[in-house]
UniProtKB/TrEMBL annotation:
<keyword id="KW-0489">Methyltransferase</keyword>
<dbReference type="InterPro" id="IPR029063">
    <property type="entry name" value="SAM-dependent_MTases_sf"/>
</dbReference>
<feature type="domain" description="Methyltransferase type 11">
    <location>
        <begin position="37"/>
        <end position="130"/>
    </location>
</feature>
<dbReference type="GO" id="GO:0032259">
    <property type="term" value="P:methylation"/>
</dbReference>
<dbReference type="GO" id="GO:0008168">
    <property type="term" value="F:methyltransferase activity"/>
</dbReference>
<protein>
    <submittedName>
        <fullName>Class I SAM-dependent methyltransferase</fullName>
    </submittedName>
</protein>
<keyword id="KW-0808">Transferase</keyword>
<dbReference type="InterPro" id="IPR052356">
    <property type="entry name" value="Thiol_S-MT"/>
</dbReference>
<dbReference type="InterPro" id="IPR013216">
    <property type="entry name" value="Methyltransf_11"/>
</dbReference>
<dbReference type="Pfam" id="PF08241">
    <property type="entry name" value="Methyltransf_11"/>
</dbReference>
Length: 197
């Protein structure tokens, strides 16, 4: 299933990307600057949007996802180095990055609290942390449905948690949340924060 998921992911995301995700992703990623760390680059959907950055160091634990991204890496306008590793154990020195980008990935990270600690460790003071994530909804019925579906969903979708409260995790991690924008009645959020270490 792990090898099939990247193909299913790209196929499922195509209509969503064409609808509105593309605009959300591009608007967020184009705010990146300097040296960039991308968490969980997946099939490389963000790579074409990077512009005024020095380089991107991109991590992805799933080798099947990485293979799916090869064409997008070759077409990118900026240098991209990829690493097969997890967000909880980043292979970078302290204070390395000016921007960290994470899109539709925090739902799958097994230990998001540790990942956020690692992101802060490798970020320079004042670094931008740019996220686009689906989260548990405030509406009770929808939220309860997400909780009920999560065990099966995790098995089918590479560990994805439908019921994760990523905004709460970010706000309680020590990052300074500057801006939150809601999409699709709160199912998706962009979260712009800063490292204030």
């Amino acid at each position: 299933m792990a090898g099939l998921f990247p193909h299913l992911y790209d196929t499922a995301m195509q209509p969503l990307e064409k609808m509105r995700f593309e605009k959300i992703r591009s608007g967020l990623v184009r705010k990146a600057e300097g040296r960039v760390l991308e968490i969980g680059f997946g099939t490389g959907a963000n790579f074409r949007y990077y512009r005024n950055v020095e380089r991107v160091d991109a991590i992805e634990p799933n080798p099947a996802m990485s293979r799916q991204a090869i064409k997008r890496i070759k077409k990118a306008q900026i240098p991209i180095a990829t690493y097969q590793t997890t967000a909880e154990n980043l292979p970078f020195a302290d204070n390395s990055f000016d921007t960290v980008v994470a899109t539709l990935v925090f739902c799958t990270i097994p230990n998001p609290e540790q990942a956020l600690r690692e992101i802060q460790r490798v970020s320079k003071p004042g670094a931008k942390i740019l996220m686009f994530e689906h989260v548990i909804m405030d509406q009770k019925i929808f939220g309860k449905t997400q909780v009920a579906l999560t065990p099966l969903w995790k098995k089918l979708c590479d560990g994805c948690h439908l019921d994760r409260d990523t905004l709460w995790l970010v706000a309680n991690s020590g990052l300074k949340v500057d801006k939150v924008t809601s999409y699709y009645k709160g199912l998706f959020l962009t979260i712009e924060s800063r490292c204030i270490q």
